Amino acid sequence: MGSRQIVAVLQLGGVFTTDDDGHMTYSGGEAHAMLVKSGWTFKAFKHEISSTLNNLKLDSYAFKYFLPKNNKTLISISNDKDLKRMVEFHADSETTDIYVIKKVDNRVKSSVADSSAPADSAIVGTTPDGSKRQKICASWENTITGVGQVFEGPKEFRDALHKYAIAHRFHYRFVKNDSSRVTVECTDEGCPWRIHASKSSANQEFMIKKVVGSHTCESETVKSNRLASQKWVASVIKEKLRDSPNYRPRDIANDLQREYGLSLNYSQAWRGKLIARKELYSPHEEACNQLPWFRDRIFATNPGSMATVEALEGSKFRFFVAFHASLHGFENGCRPLLFLDVITVKPNKHWKLLGATSVDGEGDVFPVALSVVDDESQENWHWFLEQLQASLPMPGDITFISNGRSGLWDDVSLIFPDSYHGYNVNFFIEEFKTKLDDSWSEEVKDIMVEHLKDAIYSCRVDEFNHYLDLIKAESDKLAEWLLETKPERWSDALFKGSRLGQYTCNISETIAEWIPNRYELPVVQLLDTIRCNLMEMIYTRRESSNTWSEVLTPSANQKLQEEMNKALSLSVVCSTENDGNNNVFEVCDGSVYTVNIDTWECTCRKWHVSGIPCCHAIAVFEQTDQNPVEYCSKYFRRDYYRMTYAMSINPIPDVIVPPASTDVTQSMGLQPCPILARRQVGRPKEKPADPRIAIKRAVRCSRCKGYGHNKATCKVPLTT
Fold it and tell me: Quick one: what percent of the chain has pLDDT higher than 70?
């Protein structure tokens, strides 16, 4: 394994195309061959690629590849673990294609790629066809005529000044800029031009009061992005975007270059379009128009899935989706356990996600269903549970875990009458901490929290009562509160459901890692981003499990081994044969525990709670020459894990949504009229730069050409 290597073909400069079935093909560009060794770090991998590609700077490039026999999903290589997996997956392949893709404009080629300007700037300059630019800008040359010119207000003056600057190709800065006066000067150091406008004292008209000097700056040297601001781009393209919702950033950049002489890169055009869309449509209105289409595409590409969009009063909506691969995996491979969580995606202020998540044989999260709603209300949770009940092929004996809020205790028992329902342990512990007496020292508080944890994980009633008495000795009020919360919802000693050692899940953290946290996604893109990550997660875990040789999953094997080590010091003191049952044994471990092999029970109850045989049971298996693996819960077996990930989520290749027709939305009961979204409390945060171009430059040593350090800290010895 340490000496394994594969032949990689580096593909650079080509273009991906996708057919109707979602299969991707790569064409054009150039190819280079190199060896990739299994022991390499990601840093060494990048260094070798750079050397192979004539010392190409890779700070703005990403590395992707296809899994064997799958050309629908590109897998990323971004760390040591990803690189190791790639080598393992292609161990039997003759060659492996690695695509070196530029992070900026990796899906479309910018219309200004051949410009001599920096990639992240906008330029006011000449165009290939100066006459076309003159036709658009000719009328702007006289938007500012001189002293005495009157405007409706400062905004109109600023708009006219902006057009005037574009027509005459100069840049300016505001010296004063408020509701009563605007003073502007040219940014060129040697240029004396200056203009001042303010309200007149007589009739309060906004008038140009003074114009000083004329421009002496050289317009041919003007290179800046100040005139092509995001808001200005949005104002120019807004009406065209209203008529053509699929107006692409590449086309926007081309049109502004041709019509105004402004050279924009892809990201600037994209941000201008984003602002224009927000001005034209509210996020809820966009969602109402797009979700019926997205639901139909889910049905078409992933048969057997469940998707529902429902209109509400006030033109609101809610959306539910459970992909067929998730439903199949939950039914055939996961333990019957579902965590109900509300997932807040920070950049998306308008929606929340309600999720039902199971866990696989390794204890990793396995999302089953998601819903997009406007808030975490009891009504929305009730609707979500109804959709979930209709989706599940096995709606019977399921254990639910939640925080119990928003009426979940009542709704779960109403919609799933044969189910069990317990607390999310992490939430319950945090709730307990709020009840601690403020006068207690931190040491006492920590001890009380440890007593609670011991009570939660106690498998026997006498152990539970012992730790509850310890809490009661410190505070009767706290003990009474614990009893009021119904210990049968949180203590292993009393809980009737089957958690098999799983008390909480981190689905919120998982989803948060999938969603970009620097800008807000439209709801369809939000859902499709989650779908793409689910698709990659399922495939990666399935391929990983194909390398397992043991009967149990790795984590279950480790737990079983820990119990086997404990069993070495135990002895089976007798076999109970009085009642004719030769499969009941007594094991001495300080106390005497009774093990019944037929019913898979031990009086310590750890076997029942965890699904893994306890050390007492394993001591019996050693004496009776039986395999402990055969007595583990089926949900920890390798074949059940593989069944969890047996089905794939198929791509939805055309997520660029077509214009929604009034007929489609009205047929669903959705009104395509604007929806008033509730304004968020506090000052709105400014959106940062597009994360696709916010790439931090890696430090590179000028001596050894390695990354991550400089010449001063280089440890490579000098050669003489």
Answer: 81
* pLDDT at position 605 over 90: yes
Q: The domain spanning residue 159 has which CATH number?
A: 2.20.25
Q: Cα–Cα distance between 464 and 479 in angstroms, integer?
A: 12
Strand, coil or helix: 295: helix
Whether residue 521 sits in one domain with residue 377: yes
Nearest to 195 by CA among 223, 168, 233: 168
**The pair of three-digit structure tokens given for residue 720, joined into one six-digit string:** 């003489």
Identify which of 604, 610, 575 has the alpha carbon closest to the alpha carbon of residue 589: 604
Shared-domain flag, residues 521 and 602: no
Same domain, 411 and 524: yes
Q: Between the CA of residue 701 and those of 199, 321, 531, what are the distances in Å?
A: 59, 50, 40
* Cβ neighbours, 10 Å, residue 15: 12
DSSP element (H, E) containing 184: strand 181-186
Q: What is the pLDDT of residue 706?
A: 66
Whether residues 303 and 414 fall in one domain: yes
> pLDDT digits over 576-597, tens only?
554 556 788 999 988 899 999 9
The pLDDT tens digits of the residues spanning 343-363 come to 887 766 778 899 999 999 999
Number of domains observed in the structure of the chain: 6
Range of the domain at 167: 135-212
Parallel/antiparallel/unpaired status of strands 96-102 and 5-12: parallel
pTM over 0.70: no
According to DSSP H, which parts of 62-141 are helical? 80-89, 130-137
- Per the CB < 8 A criterion, the answer to whether 628 and 617 are in contact is yes
Do 323 and 417 belong together in one domain?
A: yes
Inter-CA distances, 175 with 207, 212, 267, Å: 17, 14, 29
518 neighbors 271 (Cβ within 8 angstroms)? no
User: Residue 58's pLDDT is what?
Assistant: 81
Cβ atoms within 10 Å, residue 187: 14
Classify residue 660: in a domain, yes or no.
no
Residue 675 is assigned to a structural domain of this protein:
no
Confidence of residue 299 (pLDDT cuts 50, 70, 90): very high
- Domain at 293, CATH number: 3.30.420
Q: Does residue 223 form part of some domain?
A: no
682 Rama sector, left if φ>0, alpha if ψ -120 to 50, beta otherwise: left
Whole-angstrom CA distances from 234 to 249, 272, 610 are 11, 5, 58
d(C-alpha 428, C-alpha 490), whole Å: 8
Residue in 165, 174, 260 with CA at minimum distance from that of residue 217:
165
